[in-house]
Each structure stands twice: as structure tokens, then as C-alpha cells.
Write a structure and sequence with these properties.
about 25% strand; alpha/beta; globular; single chain; 7-stranded mixed sheet; about 30% helix
């Protein structure tokens, strides 16, 4: 599952690389999902797309569509809105309240892959994961200097921030270790 897919570049690349894995791609903006759909279709070319579903949904109320009968192995959160104002921080996709909601459908030992350019968001997210009872398996403050950290798919935002000299922070958190 990818939360906040943007233009869908990440989803397109990971889904075509892994045709045996089903992907649920969620974004609140339906116009972004339209662009994501076209990017996924472009990546697949003439091949049928049978492992991707796109969904327009406000992630804050994801528990309206997902429950304990739904099982997700991995959640990807790539360059989400950092919501820097204190009054808006509960909207962060890595906030403790949302991490608690993900526990309902994330399988035991399921993972969350998170990357961001924002130092404050990353620092706060480390605290959020701890508060919600996730264990951090790996973390880095410079993803592009960590060889083998994970099989990284470079997103459009990641490329842009890297060209500006901004280091990409990343982590892998696990539920239930």
C-alpha cells in the first residue's frame, strides 16, 4: 500500500517490477490519481495491469474502508506533506494517531517504509513510531549514501530535493517485533 501517491511514479515502477504482488495506491486528490493511472499505464506499456488498484480516500479516515480482515504486508509513505504548523501536525501520515490506525490492517511483522526530505518531520516521526509501538529496523539521515539500505525507487520529489543538496532521510519500521 502506498499512502499519498502523488503522480504515481513510485507506484508505477514498483508494481511493474513485482507483478506477483498486489498494490493499493491511495491519495486524497482524485486528479492526482488520474495522473498516477496514466503513469502506471505508461510504465506497463502493452502489458495488462492486474496488480494495482487506485483509491481516492482521506487517509485520516482509512479505518472507514480497512479493517482487521484486510491484510497489508507493507506500507510506503514517500515525501508526505510535513504539516509544519503545530496545529496541523496530527495530519501527518506518520503521526501516532494514524500509525495506530494502520495497525488494524498491517499484518504482524508488517513494515512501513518512510522517506522524506524534511528534517523536523523525520525527527518527529521517529518519536511517533516509538509512541505507537513500532520498532525501527533501519534508519538513515542520507539514503543516497547508504548502499544497500533498500532497493530504492527514486521519486520525482526525491530527485528534485537531491539536486538541491537536501539529504533524504528514510526508515523501515516494523509492527509487532
Amino acid at each position: 500500500m502506498e499512502l499519498g501517491c502523488g503522480k504515481g511514479i513510485f507506484a508505477a515502477k514498483i508494481a511493474v517490477r513485482n507483478p506477483d504482488i498486489n498494490y493499493m495506491i491511495i491519495d486524497i486528490k482524485s486528479e492526482m490519481l488520474g495522473l498516477a493511472k496514466r503513469n502506471i499505464e505508461n510504465e506497463y506499456g502493452e502489458e495488462p495491469i492486474d496488480n494495482v488498484i487506485l483509491m481516492s480516500q482521506e487517509i485520516a479516515i482509512i479505518d472507514n474502508i480497512m479493517n482487521e480482515k484486510d491484510v497489508v504486508d507493507r506500507i510506503y509513505i514517500n515525501f508526505c506533506n510535513p504539516w509544519p504548523k503545530r496545529t496541523h501536525q496530527k495530519r501527518r501520515l506518520t503521526h501516532t494517531q494514524l500509525l495506530e490506525k494502520y495497525k488494524v490492517f498491517l499484518k504482524k511483522d508488517g513494515e512501513i517504509y518512510f522517506k522524506t526530505d524534511d528534517d523536523e518531520l523525520f525527527s518527529s516521526s521517529l518519536k511517533y513510531f516509538e509512541e505507537a509501538g513500532y520498532d525501527i529496523l533501519k534508519k538513515t539521515y542520507d539514503l543516497h549514501e547508504e548502499n544497500g539500505f533498500w532497493d530504492n525507487i527514486v521519486t520525482e520529489h526525491e530527485e528534485m530535493f537531491s539536486k538541491e543538496g537536501i539529504k533524504i532521510k528514510a526508515l523501515i519500521a516494523v509492527l509487532g517485533k
